[in-house]
Specification:
- There is one protein chain.
- The chain has 347 residues and is of the alpha+beta class.
- It is 28% helix and 16% strand.
- It is built from eleven helices and twelve strands.
- The longest helix is centred in the middle third of the chain and has 15 residues, at 166-180.
- The radius of gyration is 19 Å and the shape is globular.
- Keywords: Carboxypeptidase, Hydrolase, Protease, Signal.
Length: 347
């Protein structure tokens, strides 16, 4: 998701009206549908759409109430859940992971250096724990392997330095479950989704491979059946399996609600420099949130994609929130970034 961000931010000049970047996504990039939803500081919202909600039907792209899989857009919500539990003194951000998950983080084989007695909760939030990624080491077929076990057998990255890995938020979800006695899904619903008014956001149940409620169809190559080419993936993805690192279904309207309510200063507290290929120059990572410069000042955001959908969602310091998503994954991610920056900056 982060590839080409640097060139996008550096090279983005004056853009034509905000509808234009969406048309690029549905025209040049061949996405079925694209949407931007902006909510101003006073609560006024503007939605722009391009393309169709379902190929071959002529149906217009669904509006801001349409649900879709937000993938890594789930991470700020998990981070906010952890911060709420820290407020309740159930989690100490500077405590070692072993306090909450004794003996769980112990590496094996190539991952022998991984040790939960040396990793703090704050390191997980900031992606500086050294835990390796599991996603690029699994086959996309059910039953999936134990994701954490896969990660623990891989070589760790340098502890203390930024290295993005879904494993960090997988472990945070486990900590939330351990300290609340509730599944992280229920805990995040009670602590964040309900208080923030995110009524159309939900964690899919196991075996629920579709999208409930109003939604556009999503398209892409199924990772388990690449020989089929592009297919309709709307009811074919086991979103449940990706849990706290990327398992939520939400709407543009709800994501903007999150950004308007979320404690931005705390989510960005003690942010670390991002020194990893494919991220914008000068970017910093806080607790599930990235800060980058744009033509109209700094933006704070999260990005995510999985087959069939890609999203960038965030806000600025002034309280303007924006979400842009497409019903596929464009080959040129810069076009999605352009649409987000346009939504954030154009008045």
């Amino acid at each position: 998701m982060m590839k080409l961000l640097a060139s996008a931010v550096a090279g983005l000049l004056a853009l034509t009206p905000a509808q234009s970047p969406l048309d690029v996504l549905t025209g040049q990039d061949g996405m079925a549908g694209a949407l931007s939803h902006v909510t101003g500081p006073g609560g006024t919202s503007v939605t722009r759409r391009s393309g169709t909600a379902e190929r071959g039907t002529g149906k217009p792209m669904i509006g801001a109430e349409g649900r879709f899989r937000i993938a890594s857009g789930s991470k700020p919500i998990i981070a906010a859940t952890v911060l709420r539990l820290a407020d309740q003194r159930k989690i100490d951000l500077d405590a070692k992971v072993d306090r909450y998950l004794p003996g769980v983080l112990r590496g094996t084989g190539d991952g022998a250096a991984i040790d939960g007695r040396k990793i703090t909760v704050r390191m997980l939030l900031r992606q500086t724990s050294g835990l390796p990624e599991f996603l690029d080491a699994i086959e996309w077929k059910q039953p999936f392997p134990d994701f954490l076990r896969v990660a623990l057998a891989r070589k760790s990255t340098a502890r203390g330095s930024f290295a993005y890995a879904n494993t960090n938020y997988l472990v945070l979800g486990m900590i939330v479950t351990a300290v609340t006695g509730k599944d992280f899904r229920r805990a995040s619903k009670e602590l964040i989704l309900e208080p923030y008014g995110m009524r159309d956001t939900y964690w899919p149940a196991k075996g629920d491979n579709g999208i409930r409620g109003p939604h556009a169809h999503t398209y892409g190559v199924h990772p388990g059946r690449p020989q089929d080419g592009e297919v309709d993936l709307t009811d074919q993805l086991p979103t449940y399996a990706f849990g706290p690192s990327g398992g939520l279904v939400s709407t543009p309207a709800d994501l903007n609600r999150f950004w308007r309510e979320a404690p931005l200063s705390r989510l960005m507290a003690g942010s670390v420099p991002v020194e990893q290929e494919g991220w914008p120059a000068g970017a910093r990572y806080g607790h599930g949130v990235v800060r980058m410069g744009t033509k109209c000042g700094e933006a704070y955001f999260a990005a995510g994609d999985m087959p069939g959908a890609a999203v960038i969602s965030g806000r600025n310091r002034g309280g303007r929130a924006a979400t842009v998503y497409v019903t596929g994954v464009p080959e040129n991610r810069q076009h999605l970034i352009d649409a987000f920056i346009t939504a954030m900056c154009d008045r």
